[in-house]
Amino acid sequence: MSELPIWLIGCGNMAGAMLAGWLVADEPTDRFRIVRPSGVPFGSGISVQSHLPQSGFGEAIVQIGFKPHMLADIAPDMRSLVGPETCIVSILAGVELATLREAFPDAGQIVRAMPNTPVALGKGVVGLIAEDEQGEHAADVATLMAKLGLAEWIADERLFDVVTALSGSGPAFVFRFMDALARGGEALGLDPAQALRMAVETVRGAAELAGQSDERPATLADRVASPGGSTRKGLDILDDDEALAKLVHATLEAATSRNREMAEEARR
Ligand SMILES: NC(=O)C1=CN([C@@H]2O[C@H](COP(=O)(O)OP(=O)(O)OC[C@H]3O[C@@H](n4cnc5c(N)ncnc54)[C@H](OP(=O)(O)O)[C@@H]3O)[C@@H](O)[C@H]2O)C=CC1
Ligand SMILES: O=C(O)[C@@H]1CCC=N1
């Protein structure tokens, strides 16, 4: 893999989690340069500056990780620094390749990456789509993202908003479920801290089991539910009129729809 420098323009919760994941994967610290207005240090000897550089990025991966609505303000200042050797990587939810191309007309390659926060542990999911998947630097970006967990190319950009809802937002939905599991136990008399510990470990163990199994989670659920036993009674509540499936479908629909709105806002 080439050792292209990596600029992180914006390094808040998400890009910071990615950088933490790359450091866990032993990427050399001197590959990374952070630009963030606050200039807040990242640690680990990573270079941080509060302004864009004076001279161009040259051959580099330049990841933008600010909020989607900031693109119109920030891109004009970056434009003259981006040339045909520069690969722009955007983690901005919603914002489409065509909008990014308008923002960075001289970039050699543009890739959208949709990470999630568990990338900090190398256990994330990163959806990817490039203007040219076979083109310059696409493989470099894919290799870099694979260090953060599961990296998947998405064939159709129209599905990228769904990926953003499923895996980008997904940890938030799973955290809600963990809280609900813990609060349910607490409401039935368990010590709150103990209920939370047990809920988190139950989700961790179940996720690892599902990840290592060739069988679908539905089959694994059936293995827990002994005929005539108590789990089935609980599943009956989740399954009644597809209660959980409908709730999760509506959740993903709402998040997907907001991603589409953000794409629209960025087009203006
Ligand atoms: N949070 C998540 O789980 C996910 C977020 N995303 C995407 O990541 C992006 C960032 O989200 P998130 O990390 O949560 O947000 P944060 O608010 O945590 O981070 C925003 C970052 O943008 C920086 N910033 C603000 N103004 C500028 C500027 N003028 N120039 C350069 N950088 C600037 C901030 O700088 P400073 O640090 O100095 O304040 C900060 O580092 C969004 O586009 C979002 O769609 C994608 C997937 C998941
Ligand atoms: O909430 C957001 O807009 C971003 C997209 C995926 C996760 N966070």
UniProtKB/TrEMBL annotation:
Keyword Hydrolase annotated: no
Biological process, per Gene Ontology: L-proline biosynthetic process
EC numbers: 1.5.1.2
Annotated Gene3D superfamilies: NAD(P)-binding Rossmann-like Domain, ProC C-terminal domain-like
Boundaries of every Pyrroline-5-carboxylate reductase dimerisation domain copy: 157-262
Enzyme class: oxidoreductase
Subcellular location: Cytoplasm
Function: Catalyzes the reduction of 1-pyrroline-5-carboxylate (PCA) to L-proline.
NCBIfam families: proC
Name of this chain's protein: Pyrroline-5-carboxylate reductase
Organism: Parasphingopyxis lamellibrachiae
Gene that this polypeptide is encoded by: proC
